[in-house]
Design a protein that fits this description.
Length: 587
């Protein structure tokens, strides 16, 4: 283990994902595969609240508000919507836990753990696909946040209305100003690293809740509680007609979260334990999303008696209140909410994904710069309002999220049996276990193609047929994620059965991350032994108490003082002593 960060000028001042030395860059790691942002973390310290706050930021946005509100306008009864909400979000929770485990156990981000399944070079296939999707939606979310900021300018600076008459590249001068402000603010937040982002999302999620509750209470008081309905549709479906609509609602919930769910390992890797990640997912997904959805429908329902029409856009709701303080507070709140989801869903992912392509030249920061600049050149304001443009461009890429998810889950849980040789993910040695064929696992590549082609067809062609007046089976597109996930999972296992490639390292323990065992072990390296000889006997944590006890061995005291934590996913004779954060106390 080395304390000297093996980074260079390409890392743009320091590793942005964590402080200097945060990534355990071992001397034998190939610079074509590793930098401090991609290497296994030395410390994993995010609590369940940090994961909970991550999901709050992902849910509390204009898009989340509209999505939740739309479920209550499908003609379903209230209890049916609630069942669909719970079923959909529980599916998301289960899948998020599954994709979180390999990254949390090994301490590496989503593109790196894919090297186990796709191969050292093949991992760039899912990384680039996910990165391109994130770039497009990063621009869209920034544009939506800018629209919120426009309202504030128009309310408090009346002269700014003249800027709406001047436009460039399809966007008004005021739109450009707001977009530039939001673009810069997000970039500065990202530039300061993952810890600053963590603190921001820890604050942003609860802050949005406070304003949403205040908005709901105000509107209900104006409308009268007797006028609040949990059904926003003017028509009601009978029971049998409602069944496919309920299934579509479940699919909508899963599809909405499919992007951040796929690369959730980018965040789960920071979790101090897998148990903490699962706890955060429980509070952040089913509990948080159902409560937010109920708050949304109450607010939207109150707009009918208060304003005379149903308003499902929270920005327009705040604008209609026409109180300067409400517009300022509401506008800034939803700007904050949109920035939060943009950072966690569309900035972090391409940062790691593009860094994975060329770690020596592209750091985490540089990857984020590529995403931010690229999103502007896509000019999302010109195509976001065009349903066809979204469907036929992002629909193709989005349809591949399901197959990529299915292949990763099949590869890690079934073929690799949750056993990963961590250091082998960072070597270009042609004899390495993850080199496969020229750095690509042919089974994974074939599975992407074989599952991706029909999934893209399911996502794209039904709408094309309907638009041409041929026949309408567009409902099947709602299930493209499930179809892709199932095909990717099944086809990868089939190809692996016919031609096994992924190693399981049966009988080996050294350097192996074993996800089937709760015990995480770390080798006592030479540097740790030096520390043990030089640090006096002081204190060590008492398991589960947060207190300390005198007279413990010096090496444990050094660990208790946070000078070193075990490398994620490696083996050692030392056993964990606290169930909540076993990497911070060894006994």
């Amino acid at each position: 283990m080395t304390s000297t960060p093996l980074t260079g000028p390409h890392d743009l001042v320091e590793a942005a994902g964590h402080p200097h030395g945060g990534g355990n860059m071992k001397p034998h790691y190939d610079e074509r595969l590793a930098n401090e942002d991609l290497a296994p973390l030395r410390k994993q310290k995010w609590s369940s609240y940090n994961i909970f706050a991550f999901w709050m930021s992902d849910v509390h946005s204009v898009g989340g508000y509209v999505t939740a509100g739309s479920l209550f306008a499908l003609g379903l009864q209230s209890w049916q919507v609630l069942v669909a909400l719970i079923a959909g979000i529980v599916i998301v929770q289960v899948f998020a836990n599954m994709v979180a485990k390999p990254s949390q156990k090994t301490g590496v981000p989503y593109p790196v753990i894919n090297r186990v399944v796709f191969g050292i070079r093949g991992a760039n296939i899912p990384a680039i696909i996910r990165g391109l999707i994130a770039i497009a939606w990063y621009g869209v979310q920034t544009f939506l946040a800018a629209e919120s900021l426009n309202i504030i300018f128009l309310k408090f600076i009346p002269g700014s209305v003249a800027l709406l008459d001047v436009s460039f590249a399809g966007l008004s001068a005021l739109g450009w100003i707001s977009y530039a402000i939001l673009w810069t603010a997000q970039f500065l937040l990202f530039w300061n690293g993952m810890e600053v982002i963590r603190r921001f999302i820890d604050w942003a999620g609860p802050a949005v809740y406070v304003v949403m509750i205040v908005l709901a209470v105000y509107l209900v008081s104006q409308a009268g509680i007797q006028n609040i309905s949990f059904t926003l549709s003017t028509t009601q479906l009978d029971f049998w007609a409602s069944i496919p609509v309920m299934l579509g609602a479940i699919a909508l919930v899963v599809s909405y979260f499919s992007g951040p769910m796929l690369n959730f390992g980018d965040f789960a890797r920071y979790g101090k334990s897998f148990a903490a990640v699962k706890k955060g997912n429980f509070w952040g997904l089913p509990i948080n999303f159902v409560f937010f959805s109920l708050l949304t429908v109450i607010t939207a329902s109150a707009t009918v008696p208060v304003f005379g029409s149903l308003i499902t856009d929270p920005i327009k709701t705040v604008e209609r209140i026409d109180t300067p303080f409400a517009i300022l507070l509401g506008g800034l709140t939803f700007v904050t909410a949109t920035v939060g989801i943009n950072i966690v869903a569309n900035f972090i992912s391409p940062a790691f994904d593009f860094s994975n392509v060329a770690p020596k030249k592209i750091s985490w920061r540089a990857g984020g710069m590529i995403a931010a600049i690229g999103s502007t050149f896509l000019m999302p304001w010109n195509w976001y309002s065009n349903d066809d443009a979204i469907h036929y461009s992002l629909g193709v890429l989005g349809a591949l999220i399901g197959p990529l998810f299915g292949i990763l889950i099949a590869g890690y849980y079934i073929t690799a049996r949750q056993r990963v040789k961590v250091d082998a993910m960072f070597t270009m040695d042609a004899t390495g276990p993850y080199w496969y064929r020229n750095g690509f696992n042919p089974n994974a590549v074939k599975a992407v193609i074989a599952a991706g082609v029909p999934t893209v067809a399911v996502a794209v062609f039904p709408k094309l047929f309907a638009d041409l007046g041929m026949f309408d089976v567009s409902w099947i597109s709602d299930y493209s994620w499930f179809i892709g996930c199932g095909l990717g999972y099944a086809l990868f296992l089939l190809f692996e059965r016919l031609d096994p490639r992924v190693p399981t390292f049966e009988g080996e323990t050294e350097g192996i991350s074993d996800g089937t065992s709760d015990a995480v072990e770390a080798p006592v390296e030479a540097e740790d032994l030096v520390l043990a000889r030089t640090v006096p006997d002081v204190v060590t944590p008492v398991p589960g108490s947060g207190a300390v006890a005198p007279g413990a061995p010096a090496v444990l005291a050094q660990t208790a003082q946070d000078a070193r934590t075990p490398e994620p996913g490696t083996a050692s004779p030392l056993r964990r002593s606290t169930p909540e954060n076993p990497r911070e106390a060894l006994a």
